[in-house]
Write a structure and sequence with these properties.
about 170 residues, mainly alpha, Butyryl-CoA Dehydrogenase, subunit A, domain 3, 8 helices, about 75% helix
């Protein structure tokens, strides 16, 4: 078993959850490949070394997201560069060409606008939206992963979604 140091089981576990980890990191680091890779490495090392302490008091998914959240937020704080990254992504999004010529212009424009809107949110709020709307986690799972009461998760999600809707409707995210 992975929690007992079985490398094959750990590889299987990582293969299962790595896409989810990467989506979460992409949202937190606004697609910065270098920062995402650094955080991913820290998360996987932390997971390998800390898996033996997992006591099944919560679901593994909750444990994983809490670990990802903590490592990513630590990295954002340590580096102190998240504001510069957000501005760089905004500038890049404003001048970006189509990533894939097969994508329609409308689809790419919506993607840029959504990235810009998500990028305007603080990391904790981006994480809430990604966990709920991308990863389709329940309020209870998010509550456990972020160490917040369920009511707080619900109210924050409501406020963040309202802010995103205004931002997207006005076309000017700050």
């Amino acid at each position: 078993m992975a929690e007992e140091g079985d490398r094959d089981a750990f590889v299987e576990l990582v293969e299962r959850y790595l896409p989810r980890i990467r989506r979460l990191l992409a949202a937190l680091f606004n697609g910065s490949v270098e920062d995402m890779a650094d955080a991913e490495q820290e998360i996987l090392v932390g997971l390998w070394t800390g898996l033996g302490r997992f006591r099944f008091a919560s679901s593994f998914r909750t444990y994983l997201y809490r670990s990802c959240r903590n490592k990513a937020i630590d990295q954002l704080r340590r580096e102190g560069r998240h504001r510069r990254r957000i501005e760089a992504v905004r500038r890049e999004a404003a001048t970006a060409a189509l990533a894939d010529p097969r994508d329609g212009l409308d689809r790419e424009e919506r993607r840029i606008v959504m990235r810009r809107a998500l990028g305007s949110l603080p990391p904790e709020e981006r994480m809430l939206v990604v966990m709920k709307d991308v990863e389709e986690m329940s309020v209870e799972e998010i509550s456990a992963a972020m160490s917040l009461p369920a009511g707080t998760v619900k109210s924050r999600l409501h406020r963040v979604r309202a802010r995103l809707a205004r931002c997207l409707g006005e076309g000017a995210c700050a």
